[in-house]
TrEMBL record:
EC number: 2.-.-.-
Protein name per its UniProtKB record: Class V aminotransferase
UniProtKB keywords: Aminotransferase, Transferase
Gene Ontology molecular-function annotations: transaminase activity
Chain spans, region Disordered: 97-123
Bias kind Polar residues: ranges: 100-123
InterPro entries tied to this protein: PyrdxlP-dep_Trfase (IPR015424), PyrdxlP-dep_Trfase_small (IPR015422)
High-level lineage: Bacteria, Pseudomonadati, Pseudomonadota, Gammaproteobacteria, Enterobacterales
Domain of life: Bacteria
Length: 123
């Protein structure tokens, strides 16, 4: 499992200024990189508390707000909508998976009950 998402900083975006504004104005800390990628990517944590849907959404809204404040044009809400779409697909998949597991469990239970009945009848 990846614990950090690397985001390429587009040319012209003041990466360090964005990081500082996110921290100062929203309390969101994202990392920079090291070595040859220093100043070229942001590192955004994706485990634990930061992996919660509300934290992901808040980070995207804050990033959009900071970029707009710095004069960069973004499609309002596009990142948030794309993320919401992924969560919706994920939720639908989880429901399907839960249904499949439940169906399999029911079939296994029925088979065990049948096997048990046969064993008891054989005695």
């Amino acid at each position: 499992m990846n614990n950090v998402l690397g985001v390429v900083i587009p040319k012209g975006i003041p990466g360090e200024q964005v990081r500082q504004l996110l921290l100062n104005d929203f309390g969101i800390e994202i990392g920079t990189s090291f070595g040859p990628l220093n100043g070229k990517i942001w590192r955004i944590g994706t485990m634990g508390y930061n992996a919660r849907k509300d934290c992901v959404m808040q980070t995207l809204v804050a990033l959009e707000a900071v970029l707009n404040r710095l004069g960069f044009t973004t499609v309002q809400g596009a990142g948030l909508q794309a993320t919401w779409d992924v969560y919706q697909v994920d939720s639908a998949h989880q429901v399907d998976s839960a249904h499949q597991v439940d169906s399999t469990h029911q079939a296994d239970s029925a088979q065990r009950n049948s096997d048990h009945a046969q064993l008891n009848g054989a005695n």
